Amino acid sequence: MTNSLYLVKPEIVVTIVLVCIITFNLIFKDKPQALPWLSVIGLMITSYFVVEQFSYNSFAFASTDYKGLLVTDPFGAFFKILIVLSSVIVILFSISNKELDSAADRLGEYYSLIFGMILGMFFMVSAADLILIYLSVELLSLSSYVLAGFTKNTLRNSEASLKYVIYGGVSSGIMLFGISIVYGLTGTTNLYEINSLIQAPQINQITLLFAGILIFTGIGFKISVAPFHFWTPDVYEGAPVTITAYLSVASKAAGFALLIRFIKVTFIKSINAEGYWQVINVIDWKSFFILISIITMTLGNFAALWQNNMKRLLAYSSIAHAGYIMLGLVVMSNEGILAIIIYFTVYAIMNLGAFFIVMLIANKIGSEELDDYKGLGYSTPVLGISLAIFLISLTGLPPTAGFIAKLYLFIALVDAKMIGVAIIALLNTVVSLYYYIRVLKNMYLDKPGKEIPKFSASIPNLVLLIALVAPIIFFGIYFSPVVNLAKSSLTLFGF
Amino acid sequence: MLEQYIPVFLVIGFAIIFAGATVFSSEIFGPKRPTAEKLSTYESGMKPIGTTNERISVKYYLVAMFFIIFDLEVIFVYPWAVQFKKMFSDIGMPVFYSMLVFLIVLELGYLYAYKKGGFKWD
């Protein structure tokens, strides 16, 4: 058992940093401004050990009669890097977030809870056991419930947290019910063992279908796909904007990594010559995912058309993006997973960037309403142009990186001869153009009600902004580094 | 495939019918002759004192939460202590260190709660 500890080094480092932040906050009460830098240093040490995991491909905590709780493989390492990267960016955002000023004496808890979330997500992306899946989802959820309501003095904030707790509690309960049924059917909680056991003919197909969908409910809540998305707009609107950005990127990435591993390990029999997965003849996951992803992106895009609050608009847009990303899973091939990995790399940067500008503008004018954005393009040209770039990238127009991400997704769909689904996704992209451009119209074409004085961000924030804008333009033109990174992290353990 | 579930559905159906029938038949057929004594709150023969929706200080829940943390600690330590001799001969010192790490992290949380004034009643 103990000789597997070297496989969970990143998790151990995250735990140590969490403890260090709490202790530091206790001893140096008057130095909360050092906490973000302590967190960033901790994350850098973590990333060193995560990069090491790209060369591993094995079970951890396995014994002779048990296959192991978690796996370390390049696929997991990629998502861990993505989580670490977005955590660093979100922590840097938090330094200048005015919403957190009201909770200045509790900032130690803020950063240690973020590390709680990171720990949960790390276990999520490498879990190979139903028990660990449930535990890690709970670990992530409990920290994010508290963070969603962190600035508890505003009413919207408490509402967000309460709604999140209730939805999360119900969906994780449903997921646990599904897990218990799978355990009852197979007598094991290990995904690899379940895979070999459910191929036996005496397994009751309907029960397994039922259990599979119940487990999907829990994961679907985390990635906010269509029937389980109701919490998203309210929580995203009420939570502090840094946490909203974090939930929409990191938490979603971990959820998708978990979903891909769960489906691929549990329900895939073999991979045929063209690289397409052969599903065990139990549940028609393919049609199920087509249905879910089409509903998700259509609903997200059409609901976003009527939003007048930037955070709500970006919340619905992130639901729509979950639908697009789901298309990569619909294909059921390594090409689809490649498209998902590329999409997530780009999506993380552009979504964080869009939320960053919403935060910088809210710091200045104290509002996230679209009506208050009128004329902002002229009073703050730098932020205006950057927001335009992020929104164009979110739509998926060239020459931004968002185009490359969508391109790989559609190529995967067309290669799998799913032209119909590709056309629906394309039409959805056209719909999404309307509400992204509406923001720009408000900023550049509409007359402001009252005069807004010229303003810009502080120098460190501008540097951070450039660091986010540059890859969007750069990867839109020269995208082979992203594709190469994605190709090298395609390996899932056991395949 | 579904026919083996027929008994389950039968039980569910009977449960609904039986529960509904008992509730509504007593409502329909039962005699109703209310008096002041019958309608008063039953409190073991005493006259009822105060109201039922009394507010409890939120600090009470805080104390209850601290209690649960330590209660859970026992749940982890007890089986460990029972199995310690056997595990120690199999694995060695790591058995001891792992519990030490767990306890240190837990005590740190306790210290944090204490320093932040979690035990102050006023």
Task: Give structural notes.
The complex is a heterodimer of chains A (495) and B (122). Chain A has 495 residues and is mostly helical. Chain A has a domain of 211 residues. Helix content of chain A is 71%, strand content 3%. Chain A has 19 helices and 4 strands. Chain A has a two-stranded antiparallel ribbon. A two-stranded antiparallel sheet of chain A has the order 3-4. In chain A, strand 3 and strand 4 form a beta hairpin. Chain A is globular and about 75 Å long. The mean pLDDT of chain B is 85. Chain B has one domain. Chain B is mostly helical and 122 residues long. The radius of gyration of chain B is 28 Å and the shape is flat. The longest helix of chain B is centred in the middle third of the chain and has 33 residues. At the A-B interface, helix 1 of A face helix 4 of B.
Order of SSEs of chain A: HHEEHHHHHHHHEEHHHHHHHHH
Q: Biggest interface, which chains?
A: A-B, 10 and 10 residues
SSE-based structural type of chain B: mainly alpha
The mean pLDDT of chain B is: 85
Beta-strand percentage of chain B? under 5%
Q: How big is the Rg of chain B?
A: 28 Å
Task: Tell me the major beta sheet of chain A.
Answer: 2 strands, antiparallel
Rounded to the nearest angstrom, the distance between the terminal CA atoms of chain B is 64 Å
Give the low-pLDDT segments of chain A. Answer: none
- What is the CA-CA span between the terminal residues of chain A? 24 Å
How would you sum up the global shape of chain B? flat
Mean pLDDT over the full residue set of chain A: 89
Using DSSP, what is the number of strands of chain B?
0
Oligomer: heterodimer
Radius of gyration of chain A: 22 Å
